[in-house]
From TrEMBL:
Transmembrane segments: none annotated. Residues 2-151, 155-281 form the N-acetyltransferase domain. It comes from Paenibacillus xylanivorans. Gene3D superfamilies: 3.40.630.30. Keywords: Acyltransferase, Transferase. This is GNAT family acetyltransferase. PROSITE patterns: GNAT. GO terms for molecular function: acyltransferase activity, transferring groups other than amino-acyl groups. InterPro entries: Acyl_CoA_acyltransferase, GNAT_dom, YpeA/RimI_acetyltransf. The keyword Disulfide bond does not apply.
Length: 281
């Protein structure tokens, strides 16, 4: 018999321990020390009041961890992570957690529920589809080994203290995913390095990279200045400045062919594909 509890009275250490246990055999290897776990939760808007754990004899054996924000004009919950410890799987825990969460979100007048799931994880995709989640977008994830990167510079790139990202939304081709959104970056501003390229006294491109993990949430160039090596110059500066031996671009929309071609040409390798799925409550 399992008990289900909200996570508002559960310590971060307990949650981290359960998370690491549940994802120990995940399709994508997770390197998640405690500091990185805390940063992930903060960046993605963790709300313990709408997150839930499954417990067996006081041990957390399953969980749904959620964030909460306004997303595309609607109050939206976001699944930061759903997992069950290996020996407790196939016992209906995930379905029970999701049903409880869906009921809670409706009571709190949350309008929709967003998540991402690895495309090859067929059982998870089927489970979410069964709960009426619908695929919205397909994402691709890429990784670069830093020591294989060949620097390219055609313009001056400078490091700045911060960037008013809303000012540069016109540089975007698509809306970023939840974890790459403006709100997610501003949630942990100290975690990132901010770089801009200027031409004709104006900022024509910018890039943001995590100082320690090498994650690039945003890289964009003004459409009128593309094809001039500006993105390569920004990328070169980002790769040199991060402490991480790997650089990653996560959850880029799969149909962005020019960006994909740029990443592959720069030495990135395709890592995994994800679906963005949405449940309207």
């Amino acid at each position: 018999m399992y008990s289900y509890k909200m996570l508002d009275k559960i310590s971060m250490e307990t949650l981290h321990r359960a998370f690491v246990d549940a994802f120990s055999d995940y399709q994508v290897k997770m390197d998640l020390p405690f500091w990185k776990f805390q940063q992930m939760l903060q960046r993605r808007g963790y709300h313990p009041e709408i997150s839930m754990g499954a417990f067996k004899d006081e041990r957390m054996v399953g969980f749904v961890i959620n964030g909460l924000r306004n997303w595309n004009g609607k109050e939206t919950a976001y699944d930061l992570g759903t997992g069950v410890v290996k020996e407790y799987r196939r016992q209906g825990i995930t379905s029970d957690l999701l049903l409880n969460i869906e009921k809670l979100l409706k009571e709190k007048n949350v309008e929709q529920y967003l998540l991402e799931v690895i495309q090859s994880n067929e059982s998870a995709v089927q489970l979410y589809s069964k709960h009426n989640f619908k695929i919205q977008r397909e994402f691709s994830c890429f990784q670069l080994e830093k020591d294989k990167f060949i620097p390219q510079t055609t313009c001056t790139v400078e490091c700045v203290e911060k960037i008013d990202l809303k000012q540069f939304k016109e540089f975007w081709d698509v809306e970023p995913s939840w974890q790459n959104s403006i709100d997610s970056i501003y949630a942990v501003p100290e975690a990132f390095i901010y770089l801009v390229a200027r031409l004709d006294h104006s900022i024509v491109g910018y890039g943001i990279i995590d100082k320690k993990t090498g994650d690039i949430p945003q890289l964009a160039v003004n459409q009128n200045y593309r094809g001039k090596g500006i993105a390569s110059s920004i990328l070169t500066e980002m790769v040199q400045r991060t402490e991480s031996p790997k650089v990653s671009v996560l959850n880029m929309e799969a149909h962005l062919k020019p960006m994909e071609d740029f990443l592959v040409k720069s030495g990135f390798e395709y890592h995994v594909g994800q679906y963005e799925m949405l449940l309207k409550l």
